[in-house]
């Protein structure tokens, strides 16, 4: 039995201007918090974990909620 190893790399934890940490997944930038903080590293690990679990894609969330239902819920 043979396994194929993906050549894809893990997206980098990067420093963004204004002191923020950022990672780009599926073409979208996710701001993680203050660069090099414990919280930003935890958020990076969480996002990368979701991305890896989804086959190197972020899960897409589809809601059955309509705009009208959202407005009614807001007013309640």
Word description of this protein:
It is a single chain. With 76 residues, the protein is of the alpha+beta class. The chain has two helices and three strands. Strands 1-2-3 form a three-stranded antiparallel sheet, covered by helices on one side. The model has no long low-confidence stretch (mean pLDDT 86).
Key attributes of the depicted protein:
33% helix, 76 residues, alpha+beta, three-stranded antiparallel β-sheet, extended
Largest sheet: 3 strands, antiparallel
Distance between the termini: 58 Å
From N to C, what is the helix and strand string? EEEHH
How many strand units?
Answer: 3
How much of the sequence is in beta strands? 15-25%
Identify the strand order in the major beta sheet: 1-2-3
Estimate percent helicity: 25-40%
Question: Which spans have pLDDT < 50 for at least 5 consecutive residues?
Answer: none
Number of helices: 2
Computed Rg:
17 Å
Query: Per the principal axes of the C-alpha atoms, what is the gross shape?
Result: extended
């Amino acid at each position: 039995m043979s396994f194929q190893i993906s050549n894809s790399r893990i997206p980098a934890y990067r420093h963004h201007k204004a002191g923020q940490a950022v990672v780009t997944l599926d073409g979208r930038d996710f701001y993680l918090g203050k660069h090099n903080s414990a919280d930003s590293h935890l958020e990076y690990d969480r996002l990368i974990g979701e991305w890896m679990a989804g086959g190197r894609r972020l899960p897409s969330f589809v809601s059955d909620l309509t705009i009208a239902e959202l407005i009614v819920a807001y007013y309640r």
